[in-house]
Design brief:
The complex is a heterodimer of chains A (261) and B (219).
Chain A lengths: L7 E10 L2 E11 L4 E5 L6 H8 L7 E6 L2 E2 L2 E3 L5 E3 L2 H8 L2 E4 L11 H11 L5 H14 L15 H13 L5 E5 L7 H17 L3 E5 L3 H7 L2 E6 L2 E6 L1 H6 L4 H13 L1
Chain B lengths: L4 H41 L3 H15 L3 H11 L9 H27 L2 H9 L4 H13 L4 H14 L11 H12 L3 H32 L2
Helix pairs in contact in B: 1-2, 1-4, 1-7, 1-8, 1-9, 2-4, 3-4, 4-6, 4-7, 5-6, 7-9, 8-9
Classes of the chains: A alpha/beta (261), B mainly alpha (219).
């Protein structure tokens, strides 16, 4: 990793649900434009990493920095950190976009409105500009002809591609993908992965992807992190982790996943 | 006793005029119930314990006491502490506040039904809490509960004759005044009943149409 400021930095981040510690003093740096896949058994804390970064959950301890700025903290006069104001959180959060397992499109809005609403309301773009940008992005994900469709009129794969376009419309620097193909029928997984692959090549985006698609993780990622029990058990280049895992838990996990697939 | 159609026609204009009062009380009361009910549902959903308890106590108290007593409290008891509210306004307030507590439960069901993922998607797109609520959540929460809200509209409409106890001259009150003058109750009371029937059926039909339209919109 270079000396440049990482785009995302987890420093000693801990997250607990009651007595259960899902993330245990996690340290994780992700460089600008780096593509990181996060794999691991369920309950290992991998999705929590994304949810904390998106501020969908509150961290219990530690600090997350995004693009050099603390996410849910801000500097206090004494030189320490204090909980950030809502305005601060919203400003830093604006650098992050997320795509969800269950798409979470807004069912009462057309595909175009799904992609134009936040740029209009949050970024205060004019309706014309927001819709032009939304149309462009829908075209990019191959859905130019579906822009007036409502989510209920689209297949799962199409909905997920709209969700990717919707997230990109906010021009994030970091994109989070949370098991984005897990809810899809096998025959449409390819079309969604194709869009993500194109994004990775054509855009300057830092990407974090929680996935069970080991094959995709291998070709897509610069780095694979294997999570186990709230910690990174093993990480490195995809080939190293996926072909020659050193950690016994990684070996077990990969055996199970590859055989199941 | 014969049903006197000529007499019916004679009293029709008076009853028709009074029916406007009934409609006004219903629409005014329901507008208040719809807005206040939503406010109560939202206050209750906020994670502020004292507020939630206060709202719950209020809702339970209103739902567990007769509308008639609430009406009397507003019209006959408040003046004793120096607050005098005109009868019609009293009627609208009592109907509105009473039914807001039922509407609050309906809204709550609607709000609870919107998946958590909708809030999360809105957060990921950096919407403010208010924008999320009004632009994302509410438009999904309300359409499914329109039939339930419509039922309360019709129920409230049928309860408006209670306003005659505080001197509001609505349809039923007008019918009784006519009856007292002429000693003929059959025609005025029958006429009022028929008007309630027609209005109720028309409202039920309108609610169904709105519901069907809302259902068809996104699919």
């Amino acid at each position: 990793m270079s000396d440049a400021t990482p785009m995302v930095r987890f420093s000693q981040v801990t997250k607990r649900y009651g007595d259960l510690t899902v993330l245990d003093r996690l340290d994780l740096d992700v460089a600008a434009n780096e593509k990181v896949s996060i794999i691991g058994p369920s309950g290992s804390g991998k999705t929590t990493v994304l949810r904390l970064l998106m501020t969908l959950e509150r961290i219990d301890d530690g600090v997350i920095h995004v693009d050099g700025e603390p996410l849910t903290h801000m500097p206090d006069p004494a030189g320490g950190l204090r909980p950030a104001s809502e305005a601060h959180v919203r400003r830093v959060r604006g650098k992050i976009g997320m795509v969800f397992q269950h798409f979470n499109l807004f069912p009462h809005m057309s595909a175009l409105r799904n992609c134009a609403e936040a740029p209009m309301r949050v970024l205060r773009l004019s309706a014309e500009e927001a819709q032009a940008r939304a149309a462009e992005l829908l075209d990019m994900v191959g859905l130019a002809d579906k822009k007036d469709h409502y989510p209920s009129q689209l297949s799962g794969g199409q909905q997920q591609r709209v969700a990717i376009a919707r997230s990109l419309a906010m021009r994030p620097k970091v994109m989070l993908f949370d098991e984005v193909t897990s809810a899809l029928d096998p025959e449409v997984i390819g079309e969604v992965l194709e869009v993500i692959r194109a994004l990775a090549v054509e855009h300057d985006l830092t990407m974090l992807m929680v996935t069970h698609q080991i094959g995709f993780a291998r070709e897509f990622s610069d780095r694979v992190c294997f999570f186990d029990a709230g910690r990174i058990a093993e990480q490195g280049a995809p080939a190293a982790i996926l072909d020659n895992p050193r950690h016994e838990r990684t070996q077990q996990f990969l055996r199970a996943v590859l055989h199941a697939g | 006793m014969m049903f006197d159609w000529a007499y019916l026609l004679e009293i029709l204009p008076l009853i028709a005029r009074a029916s406007l009062v009934t409609v006004q009380a219903t629409l005014g009361g329901f507008a208040l119930a719809a807005v206040l009910g939503l406010l109560l549902a939202v206050l209750r959903s906020l994670h502020v314990a004292p507020l939630r308890v206060a709202v719950s106590v209020f809702v339970e108290a209103v739902r567990s006491t007769p509308l008639l007593i609430q009406l009397f409290a507003l019209y006959y008891i408040l003046p004793s502490v120096g607050i005098v509210i005109p009868a019609m306004l009293c009627g609208i307030l009592a109907l509105g506040v009473h039914y807001s507590c039922y509407c609050a439960e309906v809204y709550r069901a609607g709000l609870d039904n919107v998946p958590r993922g909708q809030w999360e998607a809105a957060t990921s797109l950096n919407f403010s809490t208010a924008e999320t609520f009004f632009r994302i959540i509410l438009p999904q929460a309300v359409p499914p509960v329109v039939p339930a809200l419509g039922n309360y509209l019709i129920t409230m409409f049928k309860e408006t004759p209670i306003l005659l106890t505080i001197t509001v001259i609505e349809m039923m009150s007008q019918a009784l005044i006519i009856g007292q003058d002429t000693f003929r109750y059959t025609e005025p009371v029958t006429l009022v009943g028929a008007i309630f029937l027609v209005f109720s059926l028309a409202s039920a039909w309108a609610v169904r149409r709105v519901d069907a339209w809302l259902r068809g919109r996104w699919s």
